[in-house]
Amino acid sequence: MSPRPHTLVRGLTAATAITLLTGAGIAVAAQQASAAAGCRVTYSANSWSTGFTGNVSVTNLGDPLSSWNVTWAFPGNQRITQGWSANITQSGQQVTAANPSWGGSLGTNASTTFGFNAEYSGTNTNPTSFSLNGTACTGTVPTSPPTSPPTSPPTSPPTSPPTSPPTSPPTSPPPAGTKVDNPYAGVKGYVNPEWKAKADAEPGGSRVSNNPTAVWLDRIAAIAGTSGSSSNGSMGLRDHLDAALAQGAGYIQLVIYNLPGRDCSALASNGELGVNDLPRYKAEYIDPIAAIEGDAKYRNLRIINVIEIDSLPNLVTNTNVATCATMKSNGGYVQGVGYALNKLGALSNGYNYVDAAHHGWIGWDSNSGPTAQILLEAARASGSVNNVTGFIVNTANYSALHEPFFQANSTVGGQSVRQSKWVDWNMYVDELSFATAYRQQLVAAGFNSNIGMLIDTSRNGWGGANRPAAASTSTDVNTFVNQSRIDRRIHAGNWCNQSGAGLGERPRANPEPGIDAYVWVKPPGESDGSSSLIPNNEGKGFDRMCDPTYTGNERNGNSMTGALPNAPISGAWFSAQFRELMANAYPAL
Ligand code: BGC
């Protein structure tokens, strides 16, 4: 991992740092005098008679670090038996927690958390002094605010996202067995340290890297995680769940994405399981996930499963593609989704959101009704619609959340905007209107009336210089729509690495009636697919919709793709895209 480029001159000099630290009565080691150093640690212990779970959160108040270790001494006979999100070693009472291979970078004001289980006898007295890379941390008292002033001078850019995810602290979880109506409400989301590290390594990335993003379980091997380095990281499902506990997160978002014959209408996200591999999907993929999610130690964590992106809608609109026709006729998608809903919905802390495409895919009546029916079929295959908490739209897509300058019922020069080439008779012009209306349609079809919608806003911001600032004054409907729309894609059917896109609304709960949350399910910066064929062992193909020179097909009106060049395979880090997403963020960073 490369350290985050750092060129800003920070106002906190070595001299002021020393004053602050010595002012708090802590000696500063001489070797730290050349760089601004400081840290704050929050320590908590959840004890029972002979053991406890410890959580440590450290904030780096000094210059960015590319590797870190936190040290302390236990006052008593505490002995650590197992740790997570750090490599923890103990010698006598001395403990050293070093960064895991996937999480060495710690920017200024960035925090990391790790945890452990330990045994003890007698009294479990908390340690009171901690050091980060040898420098004593002066803000160790968890309940009192730090006595030192904030280290970032006013001229520094914000190091935390402007709109932080759920601002309220975690509330105490409901008793086991009780599902809440909206699992996002009132608790903070899990920040995936693997994604965070990649974001932090980009210039300015720390402005957004504290946002919760989803963890994609995109192959069987992702459940256990991979040791060593891998383009997709190495933490397994347990590592993520343990890290979520260590972070004190209230929810974690997982994407269940490994159906047989996956991504049947495209090639970029084809997966490892063949069209007849439903038995393997159940036994080697869903069962192990359900077993891990069901571990009692995670019972107070709300586990949100986003189920099988693009799968069921493909059975409605794309059965002219051979693999989609096969997956419809062999029942692999409906039965697979049903099985996942059943197993994961059975958990008292499990919340299932099923993928429901986006307005530019199923926003026509001829598609939305049949899609609702097939979603219902899969839910019934699970045994009960109660296994469905809600639906997600716009996953990994770029459709605008809200078109500010026209609505589906707007008219221009006596013509409906629906007649424009861009809208093309769609019933909706943006995701918020679609999600709100589709929720009602799904309830009418047979889903519970309290279902909630999620909207993936990770890459639908459409800010930057090309964002229209006002409605067009043209009376020609095509000109009006093209000049007014904030979604700057060449065609609404374009989906791969879209040029000009920006980060959208930051994740937050309850943004609008019927919407459980704006979420970042597609982790910004992860590619949608390679621009040219790149051999790989993940089953991923080359889809020409990711090739900027391709002139399109019937699903994008035979338009240019608008894809960024030089993209890596889907899921791999695409630095140029991440930088553009930040530059075009809306709301701006
Ligand atoms: C890819 C997955 C990846 C996910 C998130 C999908 O398009 O197929 O491998 O994990 O995007 O980036």
Automatic annotation (TrEMBL):
Residues 1-29 form the signal peptide. Coiled coil: none annotated. It is an enzyme of class 3 (hydrolase). Residues 143-176 have a biased composition (Pro residues). Substrate binds at residues 216, 218, 358, 361, 397, 495, 522, 526. Its EC number is 3.2.1.-. Gene3D superfamilies: 1, 4-beta cellobiohydrolase, 2.60.40.290. Residues 32-140 form the CBM2 domain. Residues 127-187 are annotated as: Disordered. Keywords: Carbohydrate metabolism, Cellulose degradation, Disulfide bond, Glycosidase, Hydrolase, Polysaccharide degradation, Signal. It holds the Pfam family Glyco_hydro_6. Residues 127-141 have a biased composition (Polar residues). The active site is at 263, 310 (proton donor), 528 (proton acceptor). GO terms for molecular function: hydrolase activity, hydrolyzing O-glycosyl compounds; polysaccharide binding. GO terms for biological process: cellulose catabolic process. Belongs to the glycosyl hydrolase family 6. PANTHER family: 1,4-BETA-D-GLUCAN CELLOBIOHYDROLASE C-RELATED, PTHR34876. This is Glucanase. It comes from Actinoplanes nipponensis.
